[in-house]
Write a structure and sequence with these properties.
The protein has helices spanning 16-29, 37-40, 48-55, 57-60, 64-80, 92-99, 113-122, 146-155, 171-180, 209-216; strands at residues 3-6, 13-14, 87-88, 104-108, 131-133, 164-168, 183-187, 201-203. By secondary structure, it is α/β, with parallel strands linked by helices. The strands form 2 sheets. A 6-stranded parallel sheet has the order 5-4-1-6-7-8, sandwiched between helices. Helix 1 (16-29) crosses helix 5.
Length: 224
């Protein structure tokens, strides 16, 4: 049995508008001055803590208590507004169906787990995944290989008999896959203009993923 792990934001879907909108609403509730979208959107794919620290820096002022409050407010709002505008990238649903024929699928993201699960369910693809690992699942985040190890455990992945592939749109995804011993595939349609690393393969479109993964599972670089 093979393990096929996928990032969420910028790989399966584009959630930048919804994530930025949550920032705007939380800032308004805290009576903070409005910020333009272009000052917020660059932070939505850099991990949640970086998002909070960058987009609420004028409120946090180094306070851990305020950071915890911002985190709680953000997650509460996002959970109920998780997919106002977020949609799967064209071709992803069909690609997931084909990938599921090649191995067990897992989502590995830095987005909180319960929000990730809600988003996947709202988008109608939660049933495709045997595991969902969020940024708060393991007490650490990508590119720490512990998160992919937990995905492997939940999927029943046996390194002695299967191989692993990590698919994502950031350098952190590539670094994570490499640290775990997986073949890495970078998604050219994601948020980053370039991989920022040296992935084993590049997928130009979601439709290309199944054939690339089929090839990747035969690569010597995969975990034996």
């Amino acid at each position: 049995m093979h393990l096929i792990a996928l990032d969420l934001d910028g790989t399966l879907e584009d959630s930048r508008s919804d994530m930025a909108a949550v920032v705007h609403r939380v800032r308004a509730r805290l009576d903070l001055p409005a910020r333009p979208d272009e000052a917020v959107r660059p932070w939505v794919n850099r991990g949640m803590d970086q998002l909070y620290r960058a987009c609420f820096d004028d409120h946090l002022q180094g306070s851990d208590a305020r950071l915890a409050d911002v985190r709680a407010r953000y997650e509460e709002d996002y959970l109920v507004n998780v997919a106002r505008e977020t949609r799967l990238y064209p071709g992803i649903a069909a690609a997931l169906a084909r990938l599921a024929e090649l191995g067990r699928l897992a989502v590995v993201t830095n987005k909180p787990e319960r929000i990730s699960r809600r988003l996947l369910a709202t988008l109608g693809v939660d049933g495709a995944f045997s595991a969902v690992i969020g940024g708060d699942t393991c007490g650490t985040t990508k590119p720490d290989p512990l998160v992919l190890e937990e995905a492997a455990r939940r999927c029943g992945f046996d390194a002695a008999s299967g191989r692993a592939v990590m698919i994502g749109d950031t350098a952190a995804d590539v670094a994570l896959g490499r640290a775990f011993g997986a073949v890495t595939i970078w998604c050219a349609w994601g948020y980053a203009a370039e991989s920022g690393a040296a992935p084993d393969c590049v997928a130009e479109t979601p439709e290309a993923l199944p054939d690339l993964v089929r090839t990747a599972l035969k690569m010597v670089g995969a975990r034996p």
